[in-house]
């Protein structure tokens, strides 16, 4: 779906299933003929027309609101026609089929995922970062993420990126002008304080990158796997963090057979938690499959919580598990059931938070945390540690949502600027190299808003949208 096709397109814009109202949306370069065919009258742009929606035999499919936007003053920049009907799946399907038949000669076809928004991008109604923000706004799972996605959609992120781009272009223009007068090259860097200007740009790019990192955490969140021996309280911990009975809790070891996934939010940051089958040797075929799945989940985790019974922590079986955990993933040891510890038991202090004298897991430098899934003791410390592991900085506002793609582009731009700075630190006729690195830095930044973007990348971005968007 990469190249821009000019066929008129149609899709149901509202979520599948029953709803109070459902919308069928059509976009095309000139929809006046289709409007005439459907309603027998022209529609005043941006006026709500209450009309019968009849099929070709004059049979009523629905009575609803027709809304016409004359291009370019529409979402896509083309003519847009919306049929807002009653939100039942059968009604909307009939409406869609009827429109497809009526628009057959015009080449009306079903829209690909994201194709409306892709047209909005290709017709320059929005830039690429804004188009991505449309999908992120729809997908936002917390209010914080939705607020940030809306800021991106409103162009806050793009404006910052463009401002930096402009400063790079300006500096490059000065260099390029000097390149025509070789005798001035030596003076150039001093004359325009080019090194200082570059350092300022680098500085601001770093600040932007830090904010983008926060924005990315808000979007992607953290994937946490709860692993450990049977019966240590993994399901109880999931339920306690979720504040709900998600997973089955019983005193019987080996209760959880398959993974149970739940998304929770800590300060608006999405944390995806996977409860897994307890790890042990077993002859039970079903349990074995569950345990194999546990290891598969462990491989995919951003963070592994190795949950243990505080009374027996780091016993032989726990040590065996520790040895098998992937070295690249941070492992947080959490000692559960501290409510069962004898108050006099020196094993773990009853601080209700971190078990300060418990052996530190040297590999990741993470201190074990003592909790009780039953009483809730220590859970705040655990939540805070998860936020730390996500890289979340609660002090820093996350002004917009960002994607890995954006962060990558910012880092690439930074590398080119560093190269430029390197060239500028020598004085021997390297202005052309300096200029070239500025150009490359500019290209990297431009890829965020989509000035220079391959059809492949566009296809990849828009195909992940939902249908009708
Ligand atoms: N019914 C309905 N609701 C919707 C949408 C839609 O397409 N239909 N949207 C779709 O995602 C969002 C709104 N986005 C829109 C963005 C631009 C324009 C538009 O007509 N823009 C014109 C005029 C701007 C103006 O008058 O200020 C333009 O940009 O020229 C319409 C909707 C959310 N709600
Ligand atoms: N006293 C006390 N009991 C707990 C605590 N956490 C869990 N339990 C109990 O320990 C038992 C096992 O809990 P689960 O949450 O099912 O343990 P699990 O690790 O998911 O077990 P498997 O499904 O076998 O892997 C249940 O009887 C829980 O009520 C705790 O903090 N304190
Ligand atoms: K369980």
TrEMBL record:
EC code(s) of this entry: 3.6.-.-
UniProt-annotated binding residues for GTP: 231-236, 250-256, 275-278
Source species, domain of life: Bacteria
InterPro entries documented for this protein: G_TrmE, GTP-bd, GTP-bd_TrmE_N, GTPase_MnmE, MnmE_dom2, MnmE_helical, P-loop_NTPase, Small_GTP-bd
Cofactor(s) this protein cannot do without: K(+)
GO BP term, pick one: tRNA methylation
Cofactor note: Binds 1 potassium ion per subunit.
Domain (TrmE-type G) ranges: 221-391
Protein residues bound to K(+): 231, 250, 252, 255
Annotated binding of Mg(2+), by residue: 235, 256
Molecular function per GO: GTP binding; GTPase activity; metal ion binding
Keywords assigned by UniProt, alphabetized: Cytoplasm, GTP-binding, Hydrolase, Magnesium, Metal-binding, Nucleotide-binding, Potassium, tRNA processing
PROSITE patterns in the record: G_TRME
Compartment(s): Cytoplasm
GO CC aspect terms: cytosol
Residues reported in the UniProt entry to bind (6S)-5-formyl-5,6,7,8-tetrahydrofolate: 25, 82, 125, 469
Class of enzymatic activity (EC top level): hydrolase
Oligomeric form and interacting partners: Homodimer. Heterotetramer of two MnmE and two MnmG subunits.
Stored NCBIfam families: mnmE_trmE_thdF, PRK05291.1-3, small_GTP
Function in brief: Exhibits a very high intrinsic GTPase hydrolysis rate. Involved in the addition of a carboxymethylaminomethyl (cmnm) group at the wobble position (U34) of certain tRNAs, forming tRNA-cmnm(5)s(2)U34.
Family under the similarity heading: Belongs to the TRAFAC class TrmE-Era-EngA-EngB-Septin-like GTPase superfamily. TrmE GTPase family.
Protein name per the record: tRNA modification GTPase MnmE
Gene: mnmE
């Amino acid at each position: 779906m990469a190249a821009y096709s000019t066929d008129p397109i149609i899709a149901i814009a509202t979520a599948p299933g029953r709803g109070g109202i459902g919308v069928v949306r059509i976009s095309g370069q000139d929809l006046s003929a289709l409007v005439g065919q459907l309603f027998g009258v022209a529609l005043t742009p941006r006026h709500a027309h209450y009309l019968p929606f009849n099929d070709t035999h004059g049979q009523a499919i629905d009575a609803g609101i027709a809304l016409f936007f004359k291009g370019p003053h529409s979402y896509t920049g083309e003519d847009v026609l919306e049929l807002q009907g009653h939100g039942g799946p059968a009604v909307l399907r009939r409406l869609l089929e009827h429109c497809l038949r009526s628009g057959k000669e015009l080449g009306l076809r079903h829209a690909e995922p994201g194709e409306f928004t892709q047209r909005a991008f290709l017709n320059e109604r929005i830039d690429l970062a804004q188009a991505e923000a449309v999908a992120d706004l729809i997908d936002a799972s917390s209010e914080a993420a939705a607020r940030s996605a809306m800021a991106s959609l409103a162009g806050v992120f793009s404006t910052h990126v463009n401002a930096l781009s402009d400063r790079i272009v300006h500096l490059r223009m000065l260099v390029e002008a000097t390149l025509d007068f070789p005798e001035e090259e030596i003076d150039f860097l001093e004359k325009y304080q080019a090194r200082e200007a570059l350092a300022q740009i680098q500085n601001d790019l770093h600040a932007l990158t830090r904010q983008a990192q926060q924005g990315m955490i808000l979007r992607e969140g953290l994937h946490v796997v709860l692993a450990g021996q049977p019966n240590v309280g993994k399901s109880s911990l999931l339920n306690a963090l979720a504040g709900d009975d998600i997973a089955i809790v019983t005193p019987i070891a080996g209760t959880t057979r398959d993974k149970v996934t739940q998304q929770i939010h800590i300060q608006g940051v999405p944390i995806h938690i996977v409860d897994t089958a307890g790890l042990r040797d077993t002859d039970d075929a079903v349990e074995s499959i569950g345990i194999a799945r546990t290891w598969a989940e462990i491989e995919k985790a951003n963070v592994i919580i190795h949950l243990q019974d505080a009374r027996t922590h780091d016993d032989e079986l726990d040590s065996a598990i520790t040895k098998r955990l992937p070295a690249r993933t941070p492992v947080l040891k959490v000692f559960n059931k501290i409510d069962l510890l004898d108050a006099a038991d020196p094993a773990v202090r009853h601080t209700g938070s971190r078990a300060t004298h418990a052996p530190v897991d040297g590999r990741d430098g993470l201190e074990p945390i003592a909790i009780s899934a039953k009483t809730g003791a220590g859970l705040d410390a655990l939540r805070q540690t998860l936020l730390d592991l996500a890289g979340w900085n609660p002090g820093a506002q996350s002004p917009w949502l960002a994607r890995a793609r954006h962060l990558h582009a910012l880092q690439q731009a930074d590398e080119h600027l560093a190269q430029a700075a390197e060239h500028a630190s020598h004085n021997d006729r390297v202005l052309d190299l300096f200029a070239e690195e500025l150009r490359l830095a500019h290209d990297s930044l431009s890829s965020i808003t989509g000035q220079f973007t391959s059809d492949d990348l566009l296809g990849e971005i828009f195909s992940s949208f939902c249908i009708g968007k």
